[in-house]
Amino acid sequence: MPETAATADTRTPSGRLALAASGEQIALGPLDGRYKSAVAPLVDYLSEAALNRDRVAVEVEWLIHLTGDNVLPGAGPLTEDQQQQLRAIVTEFDASSVTELAEIEAVTVHDVKAVEYYIGRRLPAIGIENLTAMVHFGCTSEDINNLSYALGVKGAVEDVWLPAARALVAQIGKMAEDNRAVPMLSRTHGQPATPTTLGKELAVIAHRLNRQLERIARTEYLGKINGATGTYAAHVASVPGADWQQVAKSFVEKLGLTWNPLTTQIESHDWQAELYADVARFNRILHNVCTDIWSYISIGYFAQIPVAGATGSSTMPHKVNPIRFENAEANLEISSGLLDVLGSTLVTSRWQRDLTDSSSQRNIGVAFGHSLLAISNVAKGLERLDVAEDVLAGDLDTNWEVLGEAIQMVMRAEAIAGVEGMENPYERLKDLTRGQRVDAARMQEFVQGLGLSADAEARLLALTPGKYTGIADQLVDHLK
Length: 480
What we know:
Layout: H1 36-39, H2 43-46, H3 48-68, H4 80-91, H5 95-108, H6 111-120, H7 123-126, H8 141-178, E1 183-188, E2 191-197, H9 198-217, E3 222-223, H10 233-238, H11 244-254, E4 258-259, H12 270-298, E5 302-304, H13 323-346, H14 356-361, H15 364-383, E6 385-387, H16 389-397, H17 404-416, H18 425-433, H19 440-448, H20 454-462, H21 472-475
Helix pairs in contact: 3-4, 3-6, 3-8, 5-6, 8-9, 8-15, 9-12, 12-13, 13-15, 17-18
């Protein structure tokens, strides 16, 4: 294509047309591009636009709070209609609001100051332009930011992430219940070991994940509004008669947050580090789930249900790849890595303030986005699985040597009961089974030659690898 004036200055150094200059909204990262639909619910809580809307909400509520408590002389309580109009600034916050804020910030070069001016522009229409000076009264930017981030993270966790995670764990729990009695060969150190049931193993997963969700659900979301260095200095200097600690405490609690009474300029972010550690731990347990399910698929315990029209391999048409679990693994690793960085960065601030937290916190949405995407992929992957009970049964039937443990313990019990000839049970089973395949006939022959009591011999002769699962099916009840 011949170069025109329109394209002359929009090429990369390699001579290719610059995609960034195409006029299209081309995402740099996968969460805003390829996987946008999967993480879209987080946009209302953890995007830059959502942060600004929460900033507007905090500033509006602070104004209403100060007038409602008549903290400042001359600023009487607002009417119900005036309060509704103020809150409508938040509820009607839209794309044009985002654009307007960006235009103000281009002049102020300060995001929170832009929010203050944005609200101030709207007070004359409400008939309270005399209260313009009360917008952002006594506040430093971090007073607004820490509360806004707390509200955004709280909403994202409680309204989006936790429901998705709980639904996934419930899905695993149902699989556990459905397969509670399906016998399965265990593998410890990758080697055949005492059988279990598929349901019990899935129940272990659900139980582990549920513990983390319970911790996350108990998260305290802290906030503060105490001025430039956490001393209420400007508050006391301007209105010395007010009980500013009570004003601040009641305001933070009205927002649904926990008041932090002792801070520097910033809220210390310890609660964030605690939360992110719990979410990262959930991620890592789920990552282990993915690797185990992937391995079970590879040995045929699970059959994958093909998706009509889907391609497993560009050259091998027979393949149905476990891509949902592989995709989830990668996203869980990215999410956990970001959460680790956030947790370690946010608990540190030089003296009373530095801005490392400002840049770090803008990645909270990315960290939760990759986790949410992984949860979605695991859920979809599990939906496409069928349990191959014939494969599970066949695996058990070729590993009769796992009954060596049962025989040994029965011999020990017999010895304690006074039955003669029960010496060295471990060594005798070791000679029979270690590194060797033992079939049903060989195992039963061995049992019959031990000299066991009639009752013990009958129990062992009736035992098969598929029946040697103890009370595994009953243990699934712990999920209820």
